[in-house]
């Protein structure tokens, strides 16, 4: 019963986080659909920019996770002053990181002409990259404040704002992409400004809510004493944030490299891989949200040194992840011949994708439990060794085994999936074993 109760609490906390993650995917799909209606060159340019921005953006998102972890720990100790202090320091760390990322994207915009892309596509992509680069600043600032509210286990506010961003983004795109109501027809750049404006609006809305809503009054009331940058606090946040960024960056980088490697096998293999990976990425949003929810709850219990509760949360979250991964695996197996048709109708691509979906099915369990293992360890501030495990999983095992199976054993794209399943299974086992070993030692010490 205790396991079931803890699982319910974690799912209840994670639900709004998951919906928020899914809305971010939906925003990207909306932009693609609206600019794709203009021409395939505009769609290709949008895809190129998102690919280039993905790794630095994910690195920034990883950095924001330190805010929710430290806030949750302080909240567990009922230390409102420390909660406020972490909010202020975390917010400015994320803001500075966002500005650095944005400037880096501006300075490196011409790299788009050196990636072997069509010249017309690269020309369209450059101004879009510039606008989207600046949009990372309000987005990461929003994420920093969102992580503060998540750390307090008040996850619905950011979820509602993320959902409201969808119609707002569609409306602004309708005005600027197509030039309706007398606005200039800006096409792809209009979609960039739509994203930028939407992110600024939801940032302002969330900041106003945090500053004025009674729920947050006790944390804002102490700002005169606590809203000061502190070197030790910054180091504490970076101790969690940098490894979290590296973990996310290594994962995104590995999948990006796998796409390039599979692309050398031909367009059919690349298309089939892209479809299977898109399906897996969508279901992974739930695993990631569950991992974040479990991590936040464990940080709260860790702040109170309640190792019995940490054990229950860890077991229930891992069990939830296993059950979810199995459900996704069964769904992928049963729907492997139908899901590809939503992306492409070419019989060769659909047939290969159907095969890859079987590997993606097994991948669901490994991916879910690996993400949860990372989250559980982060909840007890154990981040350095897990980062090493993630590096080994993707770059020492996953990609080399994938290349071996793909090229030496002539398995093609399926070989890369075998590599990732092998690496993630290895990482999942090590991460979860490490977490439960740590809590066992501490639980014994507190008897």
UniProtKB/TrEMBL annotation:
One of its GO terms (cellular component) is plasma membrane. The keyword Ion transport applies. It is a multi-pass membrane protein. InterPro entries: MATE_fam, MATE_MdtK, MdtK-like. It comes from the Bacteria. Keywords: Antiport, Cell membrane, Ion transport, Membrane, Transmembrane, Transmembrane helix, Transport. The keyword Transmembrane applies. Its main location: membrane. Pfam families: MatE (PF01554). GO terms for biological process: monoatomic ion transport. One of its GO terms (molecular function) is xenobiotic transmembrane transporter activity. It is found in: Cell membrane. PANTHER family: FMN_FAD EXPORTER YEEO-RELATED, MULTIDRUG RESISTANCE PROTEIN NORM-RELATED. This is Multidrug-efflux transporter. It comes from Filimonas lacunae. The lineage of its organism: Bacteria, Pseudomonadati, Bacteroidota, Chitinophagia, Chitinophagales.
